């Protein structure tokens, strides 16, 4: 009589933790920590086609989106376990458009109107830099400003969306030229044309 034994091998237990240090498209970093038991190797799948075999990787996503993260752990007997978290949300940066109502003027007291918008985000703060050392922060996307001086100015706006993601855009240069004062005089006070 022959006896066949079934040998059940222990498998590892997959577990992980993570810390999101930033979750914007151009400023994101996630620290992953492998807290699994009984493993000899692992593979991380970050949900976008990228993988890592580091024990505790740091990862930055190259684009915005929602990414489920999978950790697969193996022991030296060939057994495996996995766990999935997420999705981790990486928010897009705002896409901005901005303009000023005039770029060339000869009146330093002119009240310029600056306008901006975002095609993909709700903006919670607009910070306007007028190019003369003055800036103004506002929750609305339109603002008026008078330079009260002549010169060449390069305005910029920095926008922060409701997820804390930031982008900026530089507007076209503003030229404010000095007014020219013209005067003329004539010794002839009256007469028929041509006045000589």
What's the short story on this structure?
With 196 residues, the protein is mostly beta strands.
Rg result = 32 Å
Number of helices: 0
Low-confidence regions: none
Report strand order across the widest sheet.
4-3-6-7
Succession of helices and strands: EEEEEEEEEEEEEEEEE
General shape: rod-shaped
The oligomerization state is single chain
Helical/strand content category:
mainly beta
Percent helix, as a range, is under 10%
Quote the beta fraction. Answer: over 45%
Tally of strands: 17
Relevant terms:
single chain, 196 residues, 0% helix, mainly beta, 4-stranded antiparallel sheet, rod-shaped
What's the layout of helices and strands?
Elements: E1 16-24, E2 27-34, E3 41-45, E4 51-52, E5 58-59, E6 65-74, E7 80-90, E8 96-100, E9 104-105, E10 111-118, E11 123-129, E12 135-138, E13 142-146, E14 151-153, E15 156-161, E16 166-170, E17 174-176
Parallel strand pairs: 9-17
Antiparallel strand pairs: 1-2, 2-5, 3-4, 3-6, 6-7, 8-10, 10-13, 11-12, 11-15, 14-17, 15-16
């Amino acid at each position: 009589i022959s006896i066949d034994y079934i040998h059940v091998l222990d498998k590892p237990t997959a577990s992980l933790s993570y810390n999101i240090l930033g979750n914007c498209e151009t400023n994101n970093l996630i620290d992953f920590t492998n807290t699994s038991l009984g493993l000899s190797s692992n593979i991380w799948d970050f949900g976008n086609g990228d993988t890592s075999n580091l024990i505790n990787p740091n990862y930055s996503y190259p684009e915005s989106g929602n990414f489920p993260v999978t950790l697969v752990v193996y022991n030296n007997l060939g057994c495996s376990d996995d766990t999935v978290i997420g999705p981790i949300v990486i928010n897009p940066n705002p896409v901005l458009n901005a303009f000023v109502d005039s770029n060339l003027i000869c009146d330093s007291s002119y009240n310029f109107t600056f306008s901006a918008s975002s095609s993909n985000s709700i903006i919670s703060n607009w910070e306007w830099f007028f190019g003369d050392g003055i800036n103004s922060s506002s929750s609305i996307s339109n603002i008026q400003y008078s330079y009260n001086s002549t010169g060449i100015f390069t305005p910029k706006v920095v926008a922060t969306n409701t997820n804390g993601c930031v982008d900026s855009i530089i507007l076209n240069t503003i030229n404010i030229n000095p007014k020219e004062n013209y005067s003329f005089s004539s010794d002839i006070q009256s007469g028929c044309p041509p006045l000589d």
